[in-house]
Specification:
Elements: H1 2-22, H2 25-46, H3 58-74, H4 78-81, H5 90-120, E1 128-130, H6 136-162, H7 168-182, H8 186-189, H9 194-222, H10 229-244, E2 245-247, H11 263-286, H12 289-323
Antiparallel strand pairs: 1-2
Helix pairs in contact: 2-3, 2-6, 3-6, 5-10, 5-11, 6-7, 6-9, 6-10, 7-9, 9-11
Length: 324
């Protein structure tokens, strides 16, 4: 009797394992997206966690752990190839991710406001506000967790799932559109109603869709689908800086700050958005991270060689002076 029960348990576990292993990536992507979206809706609209110090962390952390746990247990070989959790070119990914994140943050979030205040409306106050100073470490952890979930889900799982049935470019676009819709709830959470809500939702979906395309190009073209470390770093820095540091009197809201009460500031920010993302997008599309990394090391190498040559030149000059 006991032996029969043991065999039954083993058969059940093998059946579960074979089921999850045999599911298509598209089906798994749909299941994981549904879980994450449902958890997000509960945190945003039911529990209203966005207005608390904790923010909507549960809807970030637990879906990510579910995705990671599922692949770790049932599809371990795809943890790197599908989820993008690989250490390939790790240092280069960290460096360029950090650099690109800063360029986007200063070019759009801060740059747009500064350009507007300096050149368009000199009366516009440009004070720097640091939000939740006592929670900066927690906020960094929150946005890192957010980036881990959204990059592994949208860029890792969904792009690779769509690529099984669509071209790469379509897969990136489809994932980006879903990523844009993913952010559509924030204007409603912040109290927008009627036509105002509709315009804010359209703006939010548009900007985040462009951002999703950018991250998709970074992953597929620049990183050749090897790792999502770079996009995770960029994503974390963009969110952390935009949600923790504010310039000007624009109202503080939950979620991405892509809505502005000043039309002129909105126009300048949109212009800075294009001026920042278009050149960066061209670079990510045209070059591979290995190429830029090699070019960087060559530039550093030339500098070091130049520094080494200077003392030799000085010594030779001293010898000539002494001979005279």
């Amino acid at each position: 009797m006991a032996t029969a029960q043991v065999h039954k348990i083993i058969d059940t576990k093998e059946a579960e394992s074979s089921t999850w292993s045999s599911f298509s990536l598209l089906k798994i992507g749909g299941i994981m997206l549904t879980i994450a979206a449902a958890w997000r809706i509960i945190d945003q609209f039911v529990l209203n966690l966005g207005s608390t110090w904790m923010n909507i962390l549960p809807s970030k952390l637990f879906p990510f752990l579910i995705i990671l746990g599922l692949f770790w247990k049932y599809r371990p070989r795809e943890t790197e190839s599908v989820l993008g959790l690989s250490r390939n070119n790790f240092q280069a990914q960290l460096f360029f991710g950090f650099l690109i994140g800063l360029v986007i943050s200063f070019g759009i979030d801060f740059g747009g406001t500064i350009v507007y205040g300096v050149f368009i409306d000199p009366t516009y106050p440009l004070q720097l506000h640091i939000l939740n100073e006592g929670l900066l470490v927690y906020m960094f952890f929150f946005f890192l967790t957010n980036a881990l979930l959204e990059e592994t889900l949208f860029r890792g799982l969904l792009i690779n799932a769509f690529k099984t049935h669509q071209s790469t470019n379509r897969a990136i676009l489809m994932s980006a559109v879903i990523f844009g819709i993913w952010h559509a709830g924030w204007p409603i959470v912040n109290g927008a109603i009627g036509l105002n809500a509709l315009s804010e939702i359209v703006s939010m979906v548009f900007f985040t869709t462009i951002l999703g395309i950018f991250f998709g190009v970074y992953y597929d073209r620049f990183s050749t689908s090897q790792t999502l470390v770079g996009p995770i770093v960029v994503h974390t820095i963009i969110n952390f800086t935009s949600e923790s540091f504010k310039i000007g009197p624009e109202p503080m809201i939950q979620g991405p700050d892509l809505i502005f009460s000043t039309p002129g500031l909105m126009a300048i920010t949109f212009l800075m958005f294009l001026l920042t993302f278009i050149p960066l997008g061209v670079v990510l599309w045209k070059y591979k991270i290995e190429q830029l990394s090699t070019a960087w090391h060559r530039m550093i190498g030339k500098t070091n060689k130049g520094e080494k040559k200077d003392p030799e030149k000085r010594n030779s000059r001293k010898m000539k002076v002494n001979e005279v």
